[in-house]
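Support case: flavin-adenine dinucleotide complex. Customer-provided input:
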Amino acid sequence: MDLFFDSNEEAFRDEVRSWLAENKPKEDWSPMDTSVGFEQHRTWEQKLFQGGWSVPSWPEKYGGRDCSLIEWLLYEEEYYLSGSPGRVNTNGITLLGPTLFDWGTEEQKDRFLPKMANGEEIWAQGWSEPDSGSDLASLKTLAVRDGDHYVLNGQKTWCSRGAWADWIFCIVRTDPESERHAGLSYLLVPGDSKGLTRRPVSRLDGEPAFAELFFDDCRVDAQNLLGEEGSGWSVAMATASSERGLNLRAPGRFLAAANRLVNLYKITIDKNPLLPVAIRDQVIDAFVNAQAYRWQVYQKATSLIEGGTLGSEASYMKLFWSELDIDIHAAALRMLAERGELVEGAPDVQDDGIWMSGYLFSLAGPIYAGTNEIQRNIVAERVLGLPRK
Ligand SMILES: Cc1cc2nc3c(=O)[nH]c(=O)nc-3n(C[C@H](O)[C@H](O)[C@H](O)COP(=O)(O)OP(=O)(O)OC[C@H]3O[C@@H](n4cnc5c(N)ncnc54)[C@H](O)[C@@H]3O)c2cc1C
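Agent response - structure generated as follows:
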């Protein structure tokens, strides 16, 4: 593994940095997990697209600039360091996009990828059900074929931004007699489908980030089936690997947070030289671990470029980044003590209250993208080859 970036990669990094510095929104927006913020963040997706920075790693044909995996990681680092807004189309771009490249027909790729890249169509993930989360293969939402359509009945839950998304990628049971992984299919469902009711649900931090979806004889065009009927589990596993591994959790986000934590420590120790040494150690650990995750990802990227695959390792990467995120934010809150509870706009608030909101969100990391208990089971069985009990 070469530990240095070449001059083209450095030039690419500079180009991203200057574009973001010049173009990132100057005004404050509502959180993207609100109906107003959702649309504000859509305009950012459109601006990124116009600048050629919405999906840099995709082929030009679909709105990208064909950049390499290493360049994409550099892009992500610069993106988070710049403090640009969150990506409201993350579920589309990082989860469904790669799945469409692997499983979509040419017609489906031409139909869906360009509108995903330009922000015209924002996607949500409709997988979890009230009784099927970790045990996703037990899902019950039925999609019965009727001519050119599937007729959907059932309920989905915890669908992030599902109340406003233009499209939802769902896993449904197309064979009513089937059990578990067999008989599932992957269906792309328009958000405005007749027979689909979407109800926003508030998150711990108060934002109406989730939606419950109710399908009552909801008809969806059979052309929106991704992969063969009955192959939904295999298609879904391609998406899940992206969600846990490289695509959704490039190290940029954690590197930027660890840098902010170091800055916070410098400011705090100036004002309070008696800050416990244990806090300094937590800051150091967080910084070192963010760097360790960074190099682990670059090492994995190098192996992927050389023809390797990302399989069950995505699970231990997910364990690492989700716990790291909590550690970074918990260290900041310990440092801030009672000031950590001040919210945006309060006098004497530090960094607009991002440490508390970031901490609350970090607590969700061990749950979404497959809970950490499930990831530990996967690592035990498939990476370490341990017996099931
Ligand atoms: C912020 C956030 C965003 C989300 N966004 C989406 C989304 O957009 N779309 C979507 O479909 N879903 C989404 N989810 C839902 C998420 O995928 C589920 O919460 C997750 O899969 C766990 O399912 P569950 O909540 O039903 O918990 P359960 O599966 O009921 O698990 C409860 C507890 O039991 C443990 N457990 C279960 N089975 C085992 C086992 N075999 N071995 C050991 N421990 C076990 C779990 O680890 C967990 O601690 C989101 C969740 C969060 C927190």
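The chain has a mean pLDDT of 94.

Case will auto-close in a few days if no follow-up is received.
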